[in-house]
Specification:
The chain is α+β, with helices and mostly antiparallel strands and 136 residues long. The chain contains four helices and seven strands. The protein has a four-stranded antiparallel β-sheet with strand order 1-2-3-4. Helix 2 packs across helix 3. It is globular. The relative contact order is 0.14. The C terminus is likely disordered.
Length: 136
């Protein structure tokens, strides 16, 4: 197994980094990490996906949207969020929510759960506690 640890940050003065792990027998993985200055180590934030600008837009959009607990399908959530200029299909939205669930919980106190049954796939969104909202 080969692990590439470039330790680059998104901004030169930032505390974020990506860890890329590749192997000849499996697909590659890329993880977002953040340096925690209090304990002097990097912590796992979520799986890395393309489109960091889209991530920031999704974070603020979902933070503004979630006033009360919400549950529904990815298609229904796309419909709820369609009023903005942010356009995602349900599969991509689900993938991004799963990859960023750690970030949503840690920084925005938004809990994201997924339930799959024979007849449906549901997403559950709720606030763990009141969090500061993104200023748009």
């Amino acid at each position: 197994m080969k692990a590439e640890i470039p330790n680059y940050t998104r901004r030169r003065t930032g505390d974020g980094a990506k860890l890329t792990i590749t192997n000849r027998d499996t697909e590659g993985f890329c993880f977002n990490l953040r340096f925690d200055k209090e304990v002097c180590r990097r912590e796992f934030i979520g799986n890395s996906i393309d489109g960091d600008e889209d991530e920031d837009a999704l974070i603020c959009l979902l933070d503004d949207f979630l006033k009360d607990d919400w549950s529904g399908t990815a298609t229904e959530l796309c419909g709820e969020l369609s009023g903005s200029n942010f356009d995602l299909n349900p599969a991509t939205l689900t993938k991004k929510l799963k990859a960023m669930s750690g970030l949503f919980r840690k920084d925005f106190h938004i809990l994201i759960d997924f339930e799959r049954t024979r007849s449906s796939r549901r997403i559950f969104l709720r606030r763990e506690q009141d969090a500061l909202r993104c200023d748009g």
